[in-house]
Amino acid sequence: MVRLVGAIAALVLCLLTLSACADDIETWQPPAELGICARTLAVREAIVAQTDRVHSCAFIDADDLRAIRALDLSGRDITALQTGDFEGLGRLRELRLNGNALLALPHGIFDGLPMLRLIHLHDNPGAPFPLQIDLQVGQERDERWLYLRLPLRPPGRVVAHLQSDGLLLTHIAATIDAGGYVGRGVNIERSHTAAGTARVLRAAVDREVEDCGPEACWTGMVLMGQRDAVEIPSLAGDGEPPQRLPTLVLRINAQSFVHDAVVERGVLAGSRRWRYYMFAEQPRGDDMSADCTITSYNIVTSGGGGVGGPNQYDGRCRLATGSGSGTFGYELPAKRIAAIAGQAVASDRRSGDPCLASNNLRIEADAASLGEIERIDAVNADAESRCYYYISVAQDPNRAAPFRFAEGESCVVEVVDGRISATGCQELVWWGGWGFGGIDSPAEARADAALTRPYVAGEEHLKRLAAIAACETLPEVSLRLDEDSFRESPFHYQSVSDEQGLCELSMTAMAPEDALAGGERCAVSARFASASAYGAVPTRQSGHCDQVVHQANWSQPGGRWSEEEQQAFAEQFASQLGSLSDADWQRLREGHFCIDDICTPLPTEQ
Predict the structure, then answer these.
(1) How far does Cα 303 stand from its chain's mean position?
(2) What value, to the nearest 5°, has the Cα angle with vertex 505 and ends 499 and 507?
(3) Helix/strand/coil for 162
(4) CA–CA separation, 561 vs 576, rounded Å?
(5) In angstroms, rounded to a whole number, what is the distance separating the alpha carbons of residues 543 and 538?
(6) Which phi and psi angles does 408 have, rounded to 5°?
(7) How far is residue 460's CA from residue 446's CA, in Å, rounded to a whole number?
(8) pTM (predicted TM-score)
């Protein structure tokens, strides 16, 4: 009976206070730590409105967030957002924030939204809002590269101009393809200066879309590079001298092509068994009145991989050259490697016929024979087939002091039926090599074989450093073009070089006949910059240059060009451009990109 009375009393009390209880229910707010209740009010209301399962921010879970594809927050008078407002929306594709009162966006607001491709931020007082593009460093074994990363998938190709200090980069621009958020790598060249910094100077998307529709696009946003430079430390092995690959030298002149249209030199080098070669073809319409010397540096990295170093040119070297390599070769070639490799045959004089010289050679170096001399060579030549084979043993110039044999010790290098081997030569540098064409006697073969020499650490950089110093003194190169320019020729060229001929800065401009019309003008110019290992220089443009393909490069010239040679080069190039289709011109135009009138050639497909 007591329990029944208590129950009735409780019921009466509840009925008497019903209105008060209702008021408490309407005004109750769940704690911020529940569900998404800590997020900006407009954001959490929009998320809850997308969910039929629950009607409170307290009960929104990860599955609810992953189910959301679009979020419309436009016109909500939002004045500020929080960093975690969109956390967990991993499948969000479209976000509308336009028409609000946003002055700024918190850092990392779009992190964790890999599917987001349509975003509207226009009609806010802070628009266009900066979106930071991050420059990242990738590394695998002994390779390193730089790449771009974005928190959003861009509506078009993203291009960033890079600046480096202490690094050599394969390109001075990095890209992210439309719809992706990680870019292709720009390799960092291995060298004795392989540590430094890099940063993004300028970045932009190559198209702007006002009406998004089904395609990815941004409105009210602009790309910005990160403020701090990326530090790139050196790798293990950076700064170490290459592992005993000799320096290959090819010297030619007019007499070299009397009997041969192609002259080839090669070497099979040291304990790593790297075989590489280079060749030069007789230049058309050129009398080769002066000597040309091409020096090729090749190295083996600490991991055992081969790396082709820079070629250097001395004298008048305006001719067609090529090279090739193959690792772990053990035999001297019986025929020209270039011909065997399927290279186009320039004439009947490049037949790939076998060399008639014997390829059986032997050197024994000991305390008596090496003595005070630095190297020993053995050469077999055949004047009829104008070719030779040789082997060499030499002191390593990178040692602090020359190596001396003890009594009874020796180093033996020999070639039997073309196969090369060595014993007892660990402290010396040794190699075997060959030459096809360009010699008429055994004496010439011996002198030619002696050109190939041991590598001296850092020597391939000396001329480059001298060239950079010379480049820094050069004036600007420029081209001023009008509607008559491309009616006369589709190709225009300008270059300057220093008095010593150490550096050449050149500018080219190409366009079809109707690229400029109605009084339109285009001016392009460039000053030296050493950001890229391969010589590309950013250009500056003004006027109506959209249809003009232009590029600037710096180089270590292979001899000076006369005005007649420059004119002949321009005419030859112009004749090749005359057959290009509209599609060809479009592909050329897509090969470079301009941001704030600063233009850069884009990385090619790897």
Answers:
(1) 21
(2) 140
(3) strand
(4) 21
(5) 17
(6) 90, -10
(7) 24
(8) 0.69
Q: Are strands 248-252 and 292-300 parallel, antiparallel or unpaired?
A: antiparallel
Which single residue is written with the structure tokens 């939002």? 78
User: What whole-number distance in Å separates Cα of residue 148 and Cα of residue 173?
Assistant: 10
Residue 53 burial (CB count, 10 A): 10
Confidence of residue 12 (pLDDT cuts 50, 70, 90): very low
Establish how many alpha carbons lie within 13 A of residue 49's alpha carbon, considering only the half-sphere containing its beta carbon.
10
Strands (E) in 90-195, as ranges, are 94-96, 118-120, 129-140, 143-149, 158-165, 173-176, 186-187
- Token pair belonging to 464: 């480059």
- Number of neighbours of residue 606 by Cβ within 10 angstroms: 7
Q: Are 415 and 391 in contact (CB under 8 A)?
A: yes
Q: Which residues have C-beta within 8 Å of that of residue 323, sequence separation ≥ 6?
A: 276, 277, 278, 279, 296, 308, 311
The span from the CA of 497 to the CA of 478, in Å, is 14
How far apart, in whole angstroms, are the C-alpha atoms of residue 141 and residue 575?
A: 46
Decide: 437 and 382 in contact? Cβ < 8 Å: no
Contact 145, 129 (CB under 8 A): no
List, in sequence order, every residue forming a beta bridge with 278; answer none if it has no partner.
265, 323
The DSSP call for residue 154 is: -
The answer to whether the CB of 63 falls within 8 A of the CB of 91 is no
Residues 6+ apart with CB under 8 A from 96: 70, 71, 72, 73, 74, 119, 120
- Beta bridge mates, 313: 294
Identity of residue 381: A
- Two tokens, residue 32: 């911020």
pLDDT digits over 115-173, tens only? 888 899 999 999 999 888 899 998 877 678 999 998 888 888 899 999 888 777 888 89
Report the percent of the chain where pLDDT is more than 70: 81
- What is the radius of gyration, based on Cα positions, of the chain? 35
Distance, CA of 152 to CA of 148 (rounded, Å):
12
- Helix (H) / strand (E) element for 337: namely helix 337-340
Query: Which residue carries 């010379």 as its tokens?
Result: 470
Q: How far apart are CA 490 and CA 283, in angstroms?
A: 24
**What is the bridge-based pairing of β-strands 118-120 and 217-219?**
parallel
Count of beta carbons in the 10 Å neighbourhood of residue 444: 17
| Pick from 545, 429, 566, 527: nearest CA to 486 | 545
Question: Cα–Cα distance between 355 and 437 in angstroms, integer?
Answer: 10
**Cis peptide bond N-terminal to 128, omega within 30:** yes
CB of 173 closer than 8 Å to CB of 128 = no
pLDDT per position as a tens digit, 440-499: 999 999 999 999 999 888 787 777 788 888 999 999 999 999 989 998 899 998 988 888
Helices (H), 60-186: 62-66
Nearest to 336, CA basis, from 386, 271, 283, 393: 386
Count of C-beta atoms within a 10 Å radius of residue 202: 19
Tell the residue number behind the tokens 């990095």, with chain if given.
174
- Contact at 8 Å (CB) between 152 and 168? no
593-597, long-range: CB < 8 A, 24+ apart: 593/157, 593/159, 593/173, 593/204, 593/206, 594/541, 594/545, 595/159, 595/161, 595/202, 595/203, 595/204, 596/202, 597/540, 597/541, 597/542
